[in-house]
From TrEMBL:
Domain called M23ase beta-sheet core: residue spans: 232-307
PANTHER family on file: MUREIN HYDROLASE ACTIVATOR ENVC (PTHR21666:SF270), PEPTIDASE-RELATED (PTHR21666)
InterPro entries with a match to the protein in the record: Cell_wall_metabolism_enzyme, Dup_hybrid_motif, M23ase_b-sheet_dom
GO molecular function: metalloendopeptidase activity
A Pfam family of this chain: Peptidase_M23
Name recorded for this polypeptide: Membrane or secreted protein containing Peptidase M23 domain protein
Length: 313
């Protein structure tokens, strides 16, 4: 066993301090952004919540700007089936590498300028596009109108898509060394720490809240034949009296809240860790797009489906 004298202890301490300073002064410093102790530093979770709200509002603004559309579809064009709220670790990693290695600025204290860079990175990664489809239809003849005129219906198609982290790295002209650091930040060991900064917590098996306490009967399971004879049911039907409060199964950000011709009044909730849940067929919703909710919070109220069928979660 080796023994260190006083000089050795000082040397070892200096090495530890130097190593810590090297980490904090590198892109890895983003992992300590909420521990800077600077009262003016803006919490990452606050930036995430505000930006998610702005993004959700942008989608709702498109819907509001097209009142002529009788139907709206929203497609999330992401490779793994997640939604934008799940990709904040990638946004933070890109921001940290790009900011630290190109401007020599630390990424521990998040000031207003750093916040704007984070938001710019988010908007560079995600995109909202839309188109209005015109569908010409002719109503069925009736006794009062045996020769009805052709009418035009309008359908609003919204698509939310994302660049991959490698595509964004190319956009920012990352070198190979910078790409290596980027992927190190997004490794299985470090990504959970970035996720924690965002306020997202992964949900383990069995930890989801039941959305309708006291109503546990399931009239149609996911994938079964539904009440209309359609195979591959895409929801879970839980009968409950109209107006019964519906609770969020997990914490997260509201991505969509409002009317959809397929789901009626609906809420789409994302926990930021790859889990999304949709709550449909409500009499009304109780939350707005971009809002942060906690598990067990009331997000809407049970409504009716066609022919009195129960709501689907």
């Amino acid at each position: 066993m080796a023994l260190l004298g006083a000089g050795g202890v000082v040397l070892l301490l200096a090495m530890v301090i130097g190593a810590a300073a090297a980490v904090i002064g590198s892109p890895m410093g983003i992992l300590f952004a909420d521990e800077s102790g600077d009262p003016n530093s803006i919490p990452i979770a606050e930036i995430v919540a505000d930006t998610n709200a702005d993004f959700g509002a942008a989608i709702n603004d498109i819907v509001s700007a097209h009142p002529e559309c009788s139907e709206t579809t929203i497609t999330y064009d992401y490779e793994d089936g997640h939604t934008w709220a799940s990709y904040w670790p990638e946004v933070l990693a890109i921001f940290a590498v790009h900011t630290n290695l190109n401007s020599d600025s630390d990424v521990v204290v998040i000031n207003a300028a750093q916040m704007q860079r984070i938001q710019d990175t988010f908007w560079a990664m995600h995109e909202i596009t839309y188109e209005v489809e015109e569908v010409d239809t002719t109503p069925e003849p009736t006794e009062d109108d045996p020769d009805p005129e052709q009418q035009t219906d309008y359908i609003l198609h919204i698509t939310v898509s994302s660049k991959t982290v490698d595509e964004l790295a190319e956009l920012y002209n990352f070198t190979q060394d910078q790409k290596d650091i980027l992927h190190q930040l997004l490794s299985e060991e470090m990504r959970p720490s970035l996720l924690a900064l965002c306020g997202g917590i992964a949900v383990a098996d069995g930890e989801l809240c039941w959305p309708l306490p006291g109503h546990t009967y399931i009239s149609c399971h996911f994938g079964e034949v539904d009440a209309f004879g359609n195979a591959g049911h895409r929801g879970t039907d839980i009968p409950a009296p109209e107006g019964t409060p519906i609770l969020a199964a997990h914490s997260g950000t509201v991505l969509v809240s409002g009317w959809n011709d397929s789901y009626g009044n609906q809420v789409l909730l994302d926990n930021g860790a790859g889990l999304s849940t949709r709550y449909a067929h409500m009499t009304q919703t109780a939350v707005t797009a971009g809002e942060a909710v906690t598990a067990g919070q009331v997000i809407g109220y049970v409504g009716r489906r066609q022919h009195g069928q129960p709501p689907a979660f």
